[in-house]
Amino acid sequence: MKTILLFNQVQDVVLKKSAQTAVNSIRQVCLFISFLMISTTASLNSQTSKVIPDISVTGAFIGPLTNGARTNQLIIDDSQLTTLSGKYLTSISFRLPTTATVSWPAANTTFPSYEVYLSNSVDPANRQLNFTANVVGTQTQVRAGSLLIPAGSLTAGGAPNAFTFDIVFNTPYLYTGTNLLIEIRHTGSDGTSASTHAAGTSTAGYGTLFTSCWASTGNVMNANFSYVKINSLDALGVKSVEIDGGLSVYPNPVTDYLFVKSAKEVAEFNIFNMAGQKIFSQKNTGKTSQLDVSNIARGNYILQIIDRNGNTSSTKFIKQ
């Protein structure tokens, strides 16, 4: 009888160990699958950029970077933006004219108020010298507040010059494939003006594929179309470790504190919900930071990271 009892006890232990081993194996497989899913989804969270117009001409326009107050509308036909459809627009940038030989600005330059609005628009052929008449639907303000452009941010010496400074949106904008109107309103700066590379009004495609107008304190007038680079992110993947070189976000999913480690100096963090509304903002000075997200409701969010040069990185995270 003792032998039988001993055998049964040994059998129970073996079965329990086998069951535990099986559970551990299943957990490892699940973790591996989760890792693959996260990695696969992360690869989808890539940046797409589009330069408008897609031609090469020599010209200039002073509007977006002048030191005097301006309002400037850029109207783009939907046929030029097919690669951005369904993506979140995150920033725009301009470049110096092909004739520029010196980087700009010579010293740090601040625009006390630099606002950007995005919306659907009329076809470029139907543009009027009336800002309101060119807007279709509701304008969405994607950027507000001051804009600091560090010395030398827009470089010269290229053919054409590079887009080297991003004007980052406070709120990502989901582009759905319509005509796009970019409206910039600023109050001028404390520095010198800079012209931007632009396509003149007689350029092929002006008035049909793209068009522009501007005003300062008087009437709305016809304008050369400043070359604009529009940056976007795919519709949100999970990226829990490294976003780009030297930048990591962890843990993901997160319960209380989200940590960000960066080789660059981060200026600001913003968190947006899936409707594109900013629900959290935090200024920053260090290279390793923590964000208290304990009071945020469970769900999926976008973390936007802006460095001191105005460059932006964005990733999705999950709040448990």
Written description of the protein model:
- It is a single chain.
- It contains 2 helices and 23 strands.
- The chain is mainly beta and 320 residues long.
- Helix content is 15%, strand content 40%.
- A hairpin with a 5-residue loop joins β12 (210-215) and β13.
- The strands form 6 sheets. A 6-stranded antiparallel beta sheet has the order 7-6-10-3-12-13. It has a 4-stranded antiparallel beta sheet with strand order 1-15-4-9, with no helix packed on it. The chain has a 4-stranded antiparallel beta sheet with strand order 16-17-18-21, with no helix packed on it.
- The protein has helices at residues 2-44, 131-134, and strands spanning 47-52, 60-61, 70-76, 88-93, 109-111, 114-121, 135-143, 147-149, 167-174, 180-186, 196-199, 210-215, 221-222, 225-226, 228-233, 242-244, 247-250, 257-262, 266-272, 278-283, 288-292, 299-307, 312-319.
- The model is unreliable at 1-11, 13-45 and 236-243 (pLDDT under 50).
- Pfam families: Por_Secre_tail.
List keywords for this structure.
T9SS type A sorting domain-containing protein, signal, 320 residues, mainly beta, Secre_tail, 6-stranded antiparallel β-sheet
Map the helices and strands:
Layout: H1 2-44, E1 47-52, E2 60-61, E3 70-76, E4 88-93, E5 109-111, E6 114-121, H2 131-134, E7 135-143, E8 147-149, E9 167-174, E10 180-186, E11 196-199, E12 210-215, E13 221-222, E14 225-226, E15 228-233, E16 242-244, E17 247-250, E18 257-262, E19 266-272, E20 278-283, E21 288-292, E22 299-307, E23 312-319
Antiparallel strand pairs: 1-15, 2-11, 3-10, 3-12, 4-9, 4-15, 5-8, 6-7, 6-10, 11-14, 12-13, 16-17, 17-18, 18-21, 19-20, 19-22, 22-23
